[in-house]
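ok trying this again, last paste got cut off
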Amino acid sequence: MPVPVPVPQQRTVPAAEATHGADLTLLVITDDPAGTFTVPELPSAAGTRVRVRTARNLTEAGRLLTDDVDCILLDLGLALPAGVRADGPDGTAHDELATLKHVLRIAPRHAVLALTAEDDAERAADAVRVGAQDYLFRGELDGRLLSRAIRYAVERKRADVAQHQLTESRLRAQENARLERGLLPTPLLDGSDLAFAARYRPGRSRALLGGDFYDTVRTPDGTVHAMIGDVCGHGPDEAALGVELRIAWRALTLAGLCGDDLLSTLQQVLEHERQSEEIFATLCTVDIAPDGRRAGLCIAGHPAPLIARRGQAAQLLPQEDGGPALGLLPQARWPRRQIQLGGSWSLMMYTDGLIEGRVGPVGTQRLGQDGMVAMVNGQLDGGLGGEALLEAAVARAQELNGGELTDDVAVLLLERDETRIRRRDGSAMRSRPGSARPAGAQRPPL
């Protein structure tokens, strides 16, 4: 039988080294015949007391182990309850720390002190390696040492729990970030003369993905297809639906669908995947011919793209021939309109989160499409382009709004610089005189 713990009889006392100023509760698990375990009075003015509960076996300890218990003092010589195995990891050898492991399983958030004999130092050290916060020897135990050990164990456990929660939170955030980042598109534009840039900012706090979505791919015939869309709403369900629509668009585009056929099929996908019939999605698609001078435009309830041709002010592409948003009308149609782009141009596609921010001295008006056009023209006059243009546009819209934009924002930019293309092609032909192409010949698509 384990030796009873020799401590004076005192119920609760002020603590000498309290760190939080709150009373602590100690659960002593030992088969002390007296049935009590107390801490002697300590010379301290901290005002903290240690309340002691005593359990004579692990079954009784399970009943006394409530949320207000801060620390457990466990006699390592205590026997396990009937029916609980004490086998070692290989299933044969007796595990001398089986009692401690049992307590750590039933009290994972409590600080634990191991109590053992002085001649069992190796076992005491093993107890700390298994999960106890500290160990004490029976023969050296006094009130001051026990009080200090209790406070140390409680603070160490709190630090361990906080660190564990922080690590879990970081790992969860990293996992979510990797997942959401993996769901964002990677443009497939190998072999294209077009420059690409995009900016994406979800409206949800601490999220990387919102209900807005976009994508860009180049098909084997050299056509560049670009798309941007917006699922109504801002939650994770809308974000998931946006990802599904983007992936479906890419697959259908690579399969050869375009225009009304593509949008009709996407509407079927939306109708099957949405959570309720009230959910819809706006969409805008363009397919740019291999020569980069013309494009087909389809609009499904979405804001019209902005085009800036060299030497001209930026303006909106026509949207009068557009159709309704996906998911609103079962038999809707989306006509494809032919657009002349020219030799050098910048085409900006965006979601309504960019234009719905407020402007004005009291923030009563929306930026709107006209305000966005004027804003972008000012930035183009300042020589901005590519990623710098998109960053400036989003930043200016946020500045005019007087704070963070509440809706998701997605913006993508496709640019063609005919002068750069000619200079590059001319340089390539001069460096390879034996393989010069006839004037005006197009590079074969990759």
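PB: full thing came through this time. The mean pLDDT is 83.
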